[in-house]
Amino acid sequence: MFHRVHLPLTIKIAILILLLLIPVTTGASTKVEPSKLIFTLKPGERITDAIKVTNTQDTEGEFTANVYDWTLDELDRLVTFPAGSRPDTLDGLIKFNPRRFTLKPGESQYVRFTLSAPKQGDWVEKKGIIFFEQELSQASPGIGSAVITQVGATVYLSFTETVRAFHFYGAQVETPAEGPPLVLLDLANEGQGHIRYQVFYRLMRADGTLVEENLLGEQIILPEVRRQVSFPFSGELAPGDYHLFLELSFWGTTQKYNTSISFKIE
Fold it and tell me: Higher-confidence residue: 74 or 27?
């Protein structure tokens, strides 16, 4: 027996700071607003928006805008690729202007970009990161070297035909002989677009006494990914019988999924 939640599409813009330094540098700072943009388009439709880039350094900087493909590895760490490397690439669907620009300290530049939905074809959500790259020279005795900083804005492009489907395979509480109890969730994204969700839990004793409750931060599951998500309780649990209430809520919809688990601490 399984439960499937179909999520409606929405057109929203949210904010999430994505900062990647390659390699790590000091003294380099650039502000990008917004740093996450989410769009839903009809087949053949086009939309234009802008990203504000501000040089918060105390020196003038030259910036170049480049789009990259990306995904998350098994530990949810960002992995980037040259544009056009992945099936969900934005390559060929996005154009931005200006591509290269110079900013004095404290100066800002609006970089406009246009997204174009294909008229037909695969309706899997497309995504990419527009990195605003700056090359910094670093002088060393007898050696000339340079590092590149990247500050990015993440762009998601889905379509009115994109299907979203969340699959909840089950939940359990693991009570190891050593270490704290862990809540285990078996979740999967079986749709064509990314899904954002939050987990709320309420832990009670068997007599109904509230032990703790908490709302965990927003999580993401990319399409065609199954995740084993785990988290500990915030407090230490005494021996006894417990009842755990779990609620999953989803970005862009009022739909929620609820379940409960009874377990015992020896």
Answer: 74
